[in-house]
Design brief:
The protein has 393 residues and is α/β, with parallel strands linked by helices. It is 38% helix and 15% strand. The chain contains twelve helices and 14 strands. Strands 4-11-12-8-7-6 form a six-stranded mixed sheet, sandwiched between helices. Strands 1-2 form a two-stranded antiparallel ribbon. The two termini are 31 Å apart.
Length: 393
């Protein structure tokens, strides 16, 4: 996991003592270093002779790290929504609020050398794969500190072993299979996670990718982030079969409660072991929910009642649900979580201010990153065929 708990804890000067100060608050001796948490009906299986335990061990350090990561993504998306409303962000903007447990849980069970490729709801994945809040927000605002130097925007963010952010519905799925083919060709035991939504799950190219991945036993984890709606159309109206984890047919599948960060972690851990053992691809469906519309241009309430959104927030929210569980397990204290909330708010506020003050790319930046290593003096044709621009490395 890129933002693993050890790095996180170093930043807050954690000390192992019976009674200690953590985030500036005194921790009581009632907290424990590890606890057993349970869930119910968190998994379903397709062509798998396995039963993942619904009793999980969770370390205190990991509990704090997962909570901090989910809160960072939630507040990051809240900031993005506000910036869009004040017109600091233009164009498309698809928020990940409500789906945080998927990227955080999966990241906890993946290696930094594994590859990720996703669709356009990519801000949370960009952050969890190592890009700072400034790198995400500046990219959204088209500023040079953005992870693509302000030229990609909401749908085209990249990071170490993170291949975007892709704007064409479903197109990232065959690309993910291709990345997995490269990994197999290179002889590594890494895998590629290709994520897509329930709306993209009906695309023909998804099934072409399934076929080739199984034919060649590529190390691919196909993940359907099923948030219930493809744009403004519910899954029940759009799909004859809504059991997306079975859609691989000859590829085994697993369904997981995508609102439970620990269940997602355990499902991903199992999937990783399955794929790395040479058994070929796996399809995973994460049942989740998005609180906002499909994009910022969609109010999200014309095709679903407000009461539905409020009910999910109340009963299934991935952050508050996790918070209640780790407090009940005595893994953390309320003061520690409040300190994390304050730290996250401060970091996001500072990131917004920095991104706003950041300069925009220059006109010369239009001609950078077209070729990885252009020869000196190389010219690139612009919109005018009679005028060529100097390539920038």
């Amino acid at each position: 996991m890129l933002k693993d708990s050890s790095k996180f804890l170093k930043s807050v000067a954690f000390q192992l003592k019976p009674s200690l100060t953590y985030f500036g608050f005194q921790r009581t001796q009632s907290s424990v270093s590890e606890a057993s948490l349970e869930t119910k009906n968190a998994f379903k299986y397709h062509k798998l002779e396995v039963s993942i335990s619904e009793s999980f061990q969770l370390k205190r350090d990991d509990a704090l790290a997962y909570y901090q990561q989910m809160q960072m993504i939630r507040k990051l998306e809240t900031a993005a929504g506000n910036l869009y409303k004040e017109k600091s962000i233009r164009g498309f903007c698809h928020l990940y609020s409500g789906q945080e447990a998927i990227c955080v849980g999966m990241s906890a069970a993946l290696r930094s050398t594994d590859a990720i490729i996703t669709a356009y709801r990519a801000h949370g994945w960009t952050y969890i794969r190592g890009i700072s809040a400034v790198g995400v927000l500046a990219e959204l605002m088209g500023r040079v500190s953005g992870c693509a130097r302000g030229k990609g925007g909401s749908m085209h963010m990249y990071g170490p072993n993170f291949y975007g952010g892709n704007g064409i519905v479903g197109a990232q799925v065959p690309l993910g299979a291709g990345i997995a083919l490269a990994m197999k060709y290179q002889g590594t035991d890494n895998l590629c996670v290709a994520l897509y939504g329930d709306g993209a799950a009906n695309q023909g190219q998804v099934y072409e990718a399934y076929n080739m991945a199984k034919l060649w036993d590529l190390p691919t984890l196909f993940v359907c982030e099923n948030n219930g709606y493809g744009m403004g159309t519910s899954t029940d109206r759009a799909a004859a079969s809504t059991e997306y984890y079975t859609r691989g047919d000859y590829i085994p599948g697993i369904w997981v409660d995508g609102m439970d960060v620990i269940a997602v972690r355990e499902a991903t851990r199992y999937a990783g072991e399955f794929i790395r053992s040479g058994k070929g691809p796996l399809v995973m469906e994460c049942a989740t929910y998005r609180y906002h519309g499909h994009s910022m241009s969609d109010p999200g309430t014309s095709y679903r009642p407000r009461e539905e959104i409020q009910d999910v927030r109340k009963r299934r929210d991935p952050i508050t649900g996790f918070k209640d569980r780790i407090l009940a397990a005595n893994l953390v204290t309320a003061e520690e979580l409040k300190a994390i909330d304050d730290k996250v708010k401060k970091e996001i506020d500072e990131a917004v201010a920095q991104a706003k003050s950041d300069p925009e790319p220059t006109l010369n930046d239009l001609y950078s990153h077209i070729y990885s290593d252009p020869v000196p003096g190389m010219k690139i044709r612009g919109t005018d065929p009679f005028y060529r621009h100097l390539a920038v490395k």
